[in-house]
Structures are given as structure tokens and as C-alpha cells.
Specification:
By secondary structure, this protein is α/β, with parallel strands linked by helices. It has helices spanning 26-32, 55-65, 74-80, 83-89, 94-97, 125-134, 165-178, 211-223, 256-267, 275-281, 284-294, 309-319, 342-353, 418-431, 470-485; strands spanning 4-8, 23-25, 42-45, 69-71, 110-115, 139-146, 150-157, 195-199, 227-231, 244-247, 270-272, 301-304, 323-326, 336-339, 359-363, 369-376, 379-387, 396-397, 404-405, 408-411, 435-443, 446-453. Helix content is 32%, strand content 23%. α2 runs parallel beside α11 (284-294) and α8 (211-223) crosses α15.
Length: 488
Amino acid sequence: MSNIYLVIDDLAAWRADFPDDAVITFDTYLKEHPIKGQKKTRIINLCNTDLYLSKGYYCSLLAEARGHKVLPSVNTLNDLSNQHLYLLQVDGMLSQLNKLAGENSSREDIHFKVFFGKTDRKELKLLARRLFERFPCPVLDVVLVWQGSWQVKSITPFNFQELNEEESSRFVAALEKFTQSLWRKPRQRKASRWDMAILVNPNEKLPPSDADALKRMEKAATKVGFNVEFIGPADYARLSEFDALFIRETTGIDHHTYHFSRKAEIEGLVVMDDPTSILRCCNKVFLQDAFTYSGVPTPKTKIVSSCGPEDMDALEEYFGYPIVLKIPNGAFSVGVSKAENREELEQILGDLLSKSALVIAQEFLYTDFDWRIGILNNKPLYACRYYMAKGHWQIYDHGTDRIGSGGWETLPTYEVPKAVLNASLKAARIIGDGLYGIDIKQQGNKVYVIEVNDNPSLEHEVEDAFIGDELYMQIMSEFARRLENRGR
């Protein structure tokens, strides 16, 4: 039990007989973990996870950033927040559900709870185990309905603090048994065809790829053996027709791009970007915590959860002014503000904390340009300098009706300073082996990783300005390589 932690919202709500040092609050986990030298740490997240960007959500996110095994994972939480995603994953269980038809003659709705894969209802034990293997979560609240056959109506995480006395006893018994077992991952299904879908959205204001780049992608994909079709947000149900998915729309967690990526992974497609990369890159809290844990150079940073007078004092003392404040899930400089004084700090921080349980505070580092290093499968692909928008401190200026941006310069990767390349590769390895754009600031010999973009811009005569169509050929060849490695 020494390396297993139960993270809860309120210690006063805990009644089970577990070692005191094994049960901690989210705030303790945020501030005091990871513990240096402690290996194989496991986190059971018992915080309320009902809301996206709640403390319960961040508990799982930070655990993954810190290399801890966590239940439930962020992927599980996001799957269970979307009915389309979890219903897709229970299709293979319907035959087992229909065995209940003769055992429940009234065919009334069946409502039951699953505690770490266990239920007290004998006829539902196999189903409970399968549901837990697919959606590893401490407590699942499940409703089945009869519609000519038994169907899953809903599967939702349930807060242990809301269990009644009898349920609490079964929950604790299941928890004690579970802590002695191994953690499992769901099996992957195999794909069967060589067709590629490229997800685009014609209505997007700042798409990651322009029309010319998309044409070159299609041409490159055709050369390495793909049939390509451009699809849009309305084509979600068609994903099973394809063997690979390339997302060329700005990604987000509470967004159809994540749902596309997750379904593609479930269906066995090769997908860029994969849902884990989207989860990690779309939240700056994860990035910052993971960078700190892994020794990636970053600006001075603090994760802020409140904005009282003492918090203001601490930020002023640590940073001075100006202070950069970031909402965790912003993109293209959206949700990034700069506070020049106490009044602005209080106003901006209060506004951001009303939208997210945590906010990033960071020292202000002015540079004329940001490096963007493209990384594919942990190898450098391209290098750009993006210059700040005219009269502004960021690359993108959202302060007017028309979004402004600065210029750019594309270089061969062998001309990039070694420190910039090394920091880029180190940051990318934290995320995975996909296609990433690493943003870096350089001041003299010092470099600072700002963020990792899971869906980097690929525009004709910008990112491809030095190597041309070879940029797209390398990306499509990587898709083909991954398919070939699956024995296709």
C-alpha cells in the first residue's frame, strides 16, 4: 500500500480503514507529489469527476503527466462524458446483455452499480467485469433498457461520497480487493484496409493546413498507396470505412476532433493525432507538470488554483510584472493574457479561474520570434521562426476584428541551434511518437519550451518552404510504415 494513493476531495468524508498516509486530498497531491525516488506509484482518483477541468479531472491528468498509473484515466473520463463514444465500445457486449431477457420478465429498466468491476447481482457479474475492463473507473452507474433487446442506456462515473451505507461497504470491499490486483488495458482491434480519411472543416477560421497543403498531402498519400477522402464533422459514423485518419482541424478535448480520434483508435485505425496526444497537448497544466517532472527547460511557472490576496502576493513576489496567464486548453494564443499590475492580475486570474480549476502563471519572456520545430516519430521534420504580430507580444493578435499574425522564416533543421533541437526532442518524447510542433523561446544560449502542439500548422510555402513536397511524403510514409508494422 505504500505506493498506492487514494486521492479524495475531502478527508472528512473518508471512513474506510486504510493507512493514513495512503489517503490524501487533491491539493496534497498537487503540491507534494511526486515524491523523489518513489517508483511505481499508483493513484486511485476518488475525487468528483463530473465536470471537465474539475479537480477530479486534473487529478487524473496530472497523474499521467507524472508517470503515475491512474484510475480512471483521462481517456476513460472523456469516453464516459460522451454517450456516442461509450455506446460504440459496448457493441460487442450486446449478446451477453440479451441473455437477461428471460431472467427479467417485466423487462423494466435495470439500474445497478459496478465497484471496481464487481456487482452483487449474479446475472450481471460478467457484464460488470467487461464494463470495468473497458472503462476502468472506481464506481460505474449503469442503466440498461429493453428495446426489443437489452441495450445500454447510460454509463456514468459515480462519486463514492454519494453511496448509501450498504453500497459504501461493498465499495470498500471491492477497493481492498482491487489494490491487490494488476491494472489492465483494453485490447486493440485490428484494421483491415488502406484508405485514408483527412478530417477538415471548411468553416474553421484558422485551419492548420491551407488548400494547397491539403492537395499536396493527398498527392503524397496516393504515392505511398492510400486512397484519400476528405471528410468533415458530419462524417463521424463513417470512420470504420477507413484504415487511417489524419486530423487537419484544430483539436480540442470537448470537441468533435477528439471524438473522431478516439473512435478511430477504437476502430483500429492509424490516427494522427491520437487521442492521448490530444489530451496531453491540449492542456497546458499537463504539459507544464510533465516538463517539470522530466527536466524539460521552461520559463518560471506556477500552477494557480485560487486568487486570494495571499495568492496575489505570492505571484508578485515570485514573478514581478508582467505576468503571463494561460487557460489550460487555449490554442492559437487564445486564452493567453498578460497582467501588467495587481489590478489586471486579479481581474484576469479571477476570470480564468471561473472557467478552469487551475490556471498557468508564467514569467514573461519577450523575444522577436518563437521557434517551431516539427517532430515526427521523435525525429526533426522542419524548423520555422514565427515572428510576433506587429505591435503585439504574441504571434497571433486577437485584439481586432481581423486576426493578425507575424511573418515567418523556414530553415533546414541542421541550421537550428543544438539546444533548441534537443529541447524539442525531449519535449516530444513526453507526449508520444506522433506529429508535433514544439514552440520554443531562445534568449542567448538559453532555451525555454513553451508548449507542444499536437496538430501543428502545415501550410504551403511556410512549413514546407525548405523541403517542399518531401514534408508531406515523410508524413504519409510514416502512416504507411505503421500499417506495414501491423502486418498489412
